[in-house]
């Protein structure tokens, strides 16, 4: 740097010294503002951003904790409901005969028809049918009987009191208009439908559906 350049710098500095006090203070204030702005941008702003992120995370964590608390509070209720469903299922399973009991149950159905005053014209066991539930199967028996309305009612009342489930489905009734009959006779076609408990060794591999809850439904008397 030459002598001439040094003289110019000294003149500039001297001009600053000669400025009024208010001007000097203004320049100093502006310089301080610039420095403060740089400090805020470099140090304070990142801290503020991080604080906001932590506040958002805290809100999310608080919501999750509250949700977990609600789930934990409902666990005893869910356990009780499951126990009740299991008890109902066990009671229903007691009404399902096993394979050895089916012949006796079919014989009992036929005896109930005869004792009710019905004449059995057809008694034909049909092939056993599997069900989506898997733990029981349907055992249908095609029946055709003749008798009075009172006899048919008595038959239905008898099988409704069986320990095992027996439902009368697909019932069709035709009247006998013969003038020789003292008592109106009915011809009834129906299916006596009972159920057999299927042991696990006979069941197909399970393919549970997503989101399935609760115990499987057992058949009910109709």
For the structure shown, list the relevant keywords.
222 residues, alpha+beta, Alpha-Beta Plaits, five-stranded antiparallel sheet, 5 strands
Walk me through what this model shows.
- With 222 residues, this protein is of the alpha+beta class.
- The protein folds into 2 domains: 74 residues; 102 residues, Ribosomal protein S6/Translation elongation factor EF1B (Alpha-Beta Plaits, 2-Layer Sandwich).
- Helices cover 51% and strands 20% of the residues.
- The protein has 4 helices and 5 strands.
- Strands 1, 2, 3, 4 and 5 form a 5-stranded antiparallel beta sheet that branches.
- α3 runs antiparallel to α4.
Strand and helix layout:
Elements (H helix, E strand, L loop, with lengths): L2 H15 L3 H73 L8 H14 L3 E7 L3 E2 L5 E12 L1 H12 L5 E11 L8 E13 L25
Antiparallel strand pairs: 1-3, 2-3, 3-5, 4-5
